[in-house]
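Sorry to interrupt, but I need a hand with the structure work. Please put the record directly below this note.
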Amino acid sequence: MFAAEKRKFKKEFHYQSVTRSLLISWNTARYSRTKPAEFRMSTLISGRALHYVFKIGDRGSSARFYREILGMKVLRHEEFTEGCDAGCNGPYANRWSKTMSYEKGNEFISITIKSKESLERARLNNWPVLPGNILEAPGGFQYHIIDEPQPTDKDPVEKVTLASSNLQRSIDYWHGVLGLQMFSKDTENRRASFGFKPEEAKLELQQIDDPINRAKAYGRIAFSCPYDQQPIIDQKVKDANTTILTPLISLETPGKATVRVIILADPDGHEICFVDDEAFRELSEYQPQDEKILDRFIKKDESGELERKYGGK
C-alpha cells in the first residue's frame, strides 16, 4: 500500500484496496510539476522509483498505522466503482469491501525505513515493536525500522525487500533485461539490491528456500520513465522472451491526467509497472483535500460494518 508518487521513491507507498486507492507519504513538496534538470542516463532506461502497492482488508486500521505510527501523510485518495484495465486491483472488478480478506503469501519480505521517531510513536501508542525493531502493519506487512534519526534531506525509505527463488535469475532479469543498476550483491546471504539512481530507495531481492507463493495479497512495484522509453522496455522484454502481463495501455482517471503503463512480471511473478513520467507527475500531484475524503469513506465503512453486525439496531 505507499505509496506515491515519488520523486525519489520518496517515502511513499501506494495502498490499493481493490477498487479504491490511497497514496500516503512523509513528503508533499515533491508533488510539483517541475521536472528534475535531467534524467540521468545511468542505464538505457532512465527510470525513477515510485511506489509499492499493497492490497488491504481494513483501511481504517491501515490508515491509522501509516499516519500515527509511521508519521506519514495522505497525498492522494481515489474511489473507483470498478476494476482497473491494467489489473491494478488483481482479479477483482468490484467495489472495495471491508468484508473482503486477502491471503498473504511470502513474496513480500519487508520495507526498511530509517526512523527512530517511528519506534518512539509505536511505543507511545502501544503498537507492538517486534524483535529486530520490526513494526507490523495491519495485514501482516512488516517494516524494519533502523533506530536512527529520520533524515530530513533524503528519503527515509532505504529499500523494499522481495523474495527470490533464484538470485542469479533475478539478477539476470532486473539488471540484465530491465537495466537497473546493481548496487550490491551479497552471495553469502543470497541477496542483491537494484535501482536507477544511488539516492533512491532500492529494490532488494532475497533468495529464500521455499517456493514463492504470491497468494491473493500480492503487490506490485512501480517505476516511471520517459514516455518514449516505454516502447524500448516493451521491446527489451519481448527480446528476452519474458512476461508482459499488460501491454502498453492508456489508463484514464476522471478529471485527472491519462497515463500510459506497461505491466511486466519477473521470473518469480513479481509485478512491475512502468508508467510514463510526465503524465504521472501530473496525476500524482498532492491533493490536500483528499485526507478528509478518505476519512469520510473510512467512517462509512465502519458504519456499514456495525449495521451488518447488529442488523441496524
In short: The chain has six helices and 15 strands. The CA atoms of residues 250 and 260 lie 4 Å apart.
